[in-house]
Design brief:
- The protein is of the alpha+beta class.
- Helices cover about 30% and strands about 30% of the residues.
- The protein contains five helices and 13 strands.
- Strand 11 and strand 12 form a beta hairpin.
- The radius of gyration is 20 Å and the shape is globular.
Length: about 250
């Protein structure tokens, strides 16, 4: 049996936005965009802002407890921390962002070179990771500020060049992303259609397959801050047709 995907084929992550001053005097995360997935912020503590860049220019949206914002593919975003900013992140297309859907705003000479981009984006394992996170963030902030300046000057060319480079970077991964999407979002959409068809017939057989699942949190470094992520692809199955700790337990 294949475990149901997290509702809507999404993923949920707890985010503590980075502190530490960047070159423009602000504290926050690594500017980046997603090429295929919409992202949502639900603020659960602290205060800050979301800086965004797109073809319409630069925008800064204030964030405080209770704020809920979301942004579509192509929206370059940067989380700004002005005091303990804590966010629940809801990502569309669970599995795609983890597989490289995000592209950071490194300067064009890096984004335009796949090997240099991978070198700049990859974090080492161990104690050196924290310093590497800061260097990666600072490099992306540099590119972000250059893009913002060009847009402010009325020149959208650098943003379009960034989009073109981002597409070239992710294109080799798209076939794998499609398989992930078919096995999660598309599968759950088909399952919902089947459930609606059954209910319309007065058939509630699917209710006998009720299942409780859990995905414990795991701490790691992220682009915007320290993350507590969840492995929704390998949840603990507490109850359901296969019984406790069924075939979808980690390691299965």
């Amino acid at each position: 049996m294949t475990a149901p995907a997290f509702p809507g084929g999404t993923s949920v992550t707890r985010l503590s936005v980075y502190s530490g001053t960047c070159q423009d005097g602000l504290e926050g995360g690594t500017p980046h965009m997603h090429t295929a997935s919409t992202e949502a912020y639900v603020v659960i503590g602290g205060r800050g802002a979301l800086q965004t860049l797109d073809v319409h220019g630069f925008r800064e949206t204030e964030l405080s407890t209770g704020s809920t914002v979301w942004f579509t593919p192509g929206t370059i975003h940067r989380a700004i921390n002005r005091g303990g900013l804590e966010v629940v992140v809801v990502m569309q297309n669970a599995g795609l962002p983890e597989a490289g859907d995000a592209v950071m705003t490194f300067p064009p000479e890096i984004v335009g070179d796949a090997a240099r981009y991978r070198e700049a984006a990859t974090l080492p394992v161990g104690e050196e990771a924290e310093d590497a996170v800061r260097r990666r963030r600072d490099l992306a902030v540099e590119g972000f500020l250059r893009l913002a300046k060009s847009l402010s000057d009325g020149d959208p060319g650098p943003l379009q060049a960034f989009y073109d480079s981002a597409v070239a970077l992710v294109r080799p991964a798209v076939a794998g992303w499609r398989r992930t999407w078919e096995d999660t979002v598309a599968r759950e959409t088909r399952r919902t259609a089947e459930v609606l068809d059954a209910l319309e017939r007065g058939d509630g057989t699917h209710l006998q397959g009720a299942t409780l699942l859990e995905a414990p949190p795991e701490a790691r470094w992220g682009m915007c801050g320290r993350l507590r992520t969840h492995d929704f692809a390998h949840p603990l199955v507490h109850s359901g047709p296969e019984g406790p700790e069924g075939p979808e337990a980690p390691g299965a």
